[in-house]
Amino acid sequence: MERLHILDAHGYVFRAYYGLAGQRVRLATAGGMPTGALYVYASMLLRLYLDEHPDRIAVVFDAPGKSFRADIDDQYKANRPELPDDLRQQMPYFQPLTEAFGWPVLSVPDVEADDVIATLVRRAVDAGLAVTIYSADKDLMQLVSDRVTVVDAMRQVVYDRDRVRDKFGVPPEQLADWLALVGDSSDNIPGMPLVGKKTATALLRDYGDIDGILAHTGDLKGKLRANFEDPVLVDRLRRSRELVALRDDVPLDVDLDALRRGPWDGTRLKALFEQLEFRGLVDRLGATGGAAADAERIEPSETARQPPVVVADAGEAAAWFRAARDAGRLAVVVEVDAQRPVRADVVGIGLAVPGRPPAYFPIGHRYLSAPPQLSRDAFVAIARDVLEDPAVAKVCHDAKNARTYLSRLGIALDGVTTDAMLAAYLLDASSDAYPLHEVVRDYAGADIPARVDLTGKGKAARGFDAVAIDRAAEYAGGAAAALLPAADALRERLRAADLERLHDELELPLARVLSDMERAGVRVDVACLRALGDRLSAHIAALERRVHELAGEPFNLGSPKQVAAVLFDRLGLDSPRMRKTKTGYSTDHEVLEAMRDLHPIVAPILEHRELVKLKGTYIDALPPLVNPDTGRVHTQFRQAVAATGRLSSSDPNLQNIPIRTELGREIRRAFVAEPGRKLLSCDYSQIELRLLAHYCEDPVLVSAFRDGVDIHTRTAAEVFGLAPDAVGPVERRVAKAVNYGLIYGQSAFGLSRALDIPREVAEDYIQRYFARFTRVQAFLDDIVASARRLGYSTTILGRRRPIPNLGSRNVRLRRAAERVARNTPLQGSGADILKLAMLRADQILRDERLPARLVLTVHDELVFEVDAGAAADVAERVRRAMETVYELRVPLVVDVGIADNWADAH
């Protein structure tokens, strides 16, 4: 039977956009225009074109204007959120893309796409055609019949009559009544109160339709009966039924024979793909032109097209590595049995070279029926020369971890030219993860499973050593094969965005330094932590007794609900920040801080919370993280997380140890040097304020930093019209809050809370500041204007941070985006300079063979472990290197400290 294919275009568009949002993937052109939804949409069209070969097809777009449903109820779809800014920028391209495929496009003014589709379905069925609708819209499932199916392409689910009944509990012909009863908040369709999905299904099973229910209200009970007998609610229900029902009599000036697929316009498609920088799709188009392209399939590279081979024989392995050396280029995927790199054992290695089948070398699978594998020693003897040879180019995903993993085998990985994870991060820093399967999908069109699909998660999780070797080969070998074309596409995108040097000369070399730092670790004095923990436990217990005494009864301080009951019910306190949550009144830090002066119980509750959190996060958590083989903690530095370019750390997270509190200092005191060595702390002083002076060139700020005077005192003198020696602690505190508040986009409201002053006073301080420092205001305004124009902010080395919502009509979203735009050049440039300093310091230590190693970095600080006798000399060399690593209009200054522990060195 001949078939008409109908594509719900806007349904596809929104599924593409929100599907990516769920996966935290953000694609954009080198110029900053978001393209993620367009990429997924184009890929789906291409897949549909080649897999289904639709002869008759119609792609239906929503048209401007209000439909008849707005006349039935003026609140219909009234609560729909505005189109997200990054999707709005992509909207003009969807229809041209569709037309380039040679598919008829339909759009009828003042008529919703669903009604156009319903009309096409009726006409097609009357003409004896079968129909497939590509959509996930539940409203369209009303149209399902023996000859009509709905396909959710993204979930790969086909809805026939039975599948609709399974999903909704009713057949398609009852679905409009079911939807009217249940309601739909997204379309502002109210439904009938007290009727949920199960109740709607039961009512329709018993009475057939809404009219049948209304004819038998006497059978219903209680409030449900009252609702169905309420004239207002019944009238609203009937309107809901009109709103959800589809019209199949829309006037369409189109003949079914006109809905035949034409030849795609290969030239136009290629031009659009190149404009949108869809390199993977350009490669997959193949021939470009009319009927010739019609037979073209989406083909991966020759290497990726071949199934991976398992290499478990030493002779075959040696031959493979000889071929790899001859090729001069290979992709490497290292799989391990643990999450912590420095303690992981290598299970297998996926490798690929151009033009050959990818290979998987199993060396550590441990399940009962595992076939013979290469021994570790045999693999190392065969592979080391090639993997350590800088003349053989390597492609990796997360070169830092690959280097750390292979070091466990005694292999020093060298010659890495492209790190796909870091490249994807540089191209779009708005995600917090760049997993291998997503990167090769987005940049090479490869379809490999997520690693967790092999290892499981939660209680069912297992190590990679328990994964069957054939499945491990499909994953790791397939990933290695896909990395080769992905690396080519990524490098082209880096070049187009002027980010290639940032990848090659900063991030990629830094991956080696971070791997060395992770393996070095830092010594922790466990006895010191335990003694601190004992003292803290006693103090926490004393605070708890004091709180109970003030409350007049014992209660669980760890329960927000019980804390709220004591504060608000028993003691009758009130908070200017009080707000209600789903579980009751909030007692978060903001709420309690605003109540601090209302009752003596509040301060010990706040202190108790802070101490319990720090004890659990660091004092109790650090000892188990100490490697028993080294006596050191090996934190993991995360290079592709922060959108600003800053490094973060985990297991443990050292970024959040308080700096200025005594307890924070006590925790840092437990980080110690080995006997005969010292810890050297080198910390950039006020680097973000110095960058502000550099960028805006304000003469007062520039001269203050050049003269080495206190910047906050100088700012206070300018803002308050005082002589510098007349500035007191209060004025300096205000100036400091304003200086740093500007960097982080703080509003008058935020400043008023930080200083505990009226909002109008805070506003006055900010106005005074900008009146005196006019170039600062102009600089910040220029940053926002540039980001609005480009779609991103840049750092001093050209790093890009995408910033959506700068054009949003939602004031809250727009202002938040403006704060991010202003902050990025300052915080991000600080991160750039710190990374340059890490590379420079590491190079000096290596070149001059100094007895020191870099072990930690936190915020703007580098921490080294150094022989005690050489500490002063190393400190001077490192300080000089850090202060001259990048030339600003104002001096970079580094504060240096040397001690037995981190607290005393900082």
Structure overview:
This protein is an alpha/beta fold and 906 residues long. The chain has six domains: 256 residues, Rossmann fold (3-Layer(aba) Sandwich); 37 residues, no CATH class; 197 residues, Ribonuclease H-like superfamily/Ribonuclease H (Nucleotidyltransferase, domain 5, 2-Layer Sandwich), CATH 3.30.420.10; 110 residues, Taq DNA Polymerase, Chain T, domain 4 (Up-down Bundle), CATH 1.20.1060.10; 159 residues, 2-Layer Sandwich (Alpha-Beta Plaits), CATH 3.30.70.370; 106 residues, DNA polymerase, domain 1, CATH 1.10.150.20. The chain contains 40 helices and 26 strands. The strands form seven sheets. It has a six-stranded mixed β-sheet. A six-stranded mixed β-sheet has the order 7-10-9-8-11-12. β16 and β17 form a beta hairpin. The longest helix has 37 residues.
